[in-house]
Amino acid sequence: LDRGGVEALCRANPSSAARVIRTAVEHIGETREEIELAVNNTAQREIHLMRRYIRVFAVIAAVAPLLGLLGTVTGMIQAFREVASSGLGSGQALAPGIYKALVTTAGGLVVAIPTLMTHYWMMSRVEGFVHRIDNLVVDFVEKFRGAKAKHRQEEQGGI
Question: What region holds the MotA/TolQ/ExbB proton channel domain (predicted)?
């Protein structure tokens, strides 16, 4: 593919990797440092977009157990209030409050555990993308420099 073909292919593919590659292609002819800076800026924007929604999973995973704990505390308060008002220490007086405490604790954990796992899985995907983009940029710049040097040698050899 020529430069125009690569740019067209990248425009037709609305992915983060395509936007990074398109940036590199658009900066062909500039210094290695300029290409790397432009590509890194584009990659950082793409990474930010990916991570923006992943943070929601981290917040949910952190808050869910706290809500479960809040339910535990209110359930235990309910249980002890029932015991205090009835004056009895029977299981029947304690059971509804303890039930509420356990259900809310379990609910918080049921939400938090898969959400936390999803968060870490998504973060590993983003980190994998970062690693692939880094390698892609290095390969692209090196191949471009090699092609440019070969072109220069051919021009000099033809003189």
Answer: 17-134
